Amino acid sequence: MTQTKRYACPYCGSEDTRSYRAIYEAGSASSTGRGSVDTGKLLSGGVDIQLTTVTEEARLAAKPRKTVNFRMDAGLFLAIAGPPIAFITFFIAAVGRDGYQQPLFTAIGFVIVVGAALFIWGRSDAKKEDRDLPERVEAWEKTWRCRRCARSFLTK
Ligand SMILES: [Zn+2]
């Protein structure tokens, strides 16, 4: 990726600036073990410290993502894995006894309904949070960071 366009920092006037995208991509690449030299900082400890610095910076400049909703995952898991778990539990506990089928089917129905409800509830929340995702990504594309004063700023 070639990046010739540079923006001067509006706070200190330094031209040592980088886009969030470039920082983010450099940070992702650093996991392969190639550390980049962070200018303006005295590094005494070698590669490990450099990698930590890059990762920290990349975390700050992380691209906005879709919401990961725990309730969605939990609900999906419950609706899919719940029935066999209920079936096995009941099978071990109550097989051979009279009338065990009815509580079994009640339990299976219950986990499916609860799982589906959790999933739908979680998804509606995730959708709400993701509604402004395009704008957040757009803002991220325009955000740059000054490497001298470590401040972030929006470009046009
Ligand atoms: Zn600056």
Quick summary:
The protein has 156 residues and is mainly alpha-helical. The protein is 57% helix and 6% strand.
Plain-language structure description:
The chain has a three-stranded antiparallel β-sheet. It is 57% helix and 6% strand. The chain is built from five helices and three strands, in the order E-H-H-H-H-H-E-E. The chain has a domain at 70-130. With 156 residues, it is mainly α. The chain is rod-shaped, with a radius of gyration of 26 Å. The longest helix is centred in the last third of the chain and has 30 residues, at 101-130. Residues 9, 11-12, 14, 146, 148-149, 151 line the site of zinc ion (ZN).
What oligomeric state do the depicted chains represent? single chain
Ligand identities:
zinc ion
Q: Per the principal axes of the C-alpha atoms, what is the gross shape? A: rod-shaped
| Proportion in β-strands | 5-15%
Structural class: mainly alpha
- Describe the main β-sheet briefly: 3 strands, antiparallel
Give the helix level as a range of percent.
55-70%
Number of helices: 5
Low-confidence stretches: 30-36, 41-52
Neighbour order of strands in the largest sheet: 1-2-3
Order of helices and strands: EHHHHHEE
> How far is the N terminus from the C terminus?
21 Å
Number of strands: 3
Keywords:
156 residues; mainly alpha; 5 helices; binds zinc ion
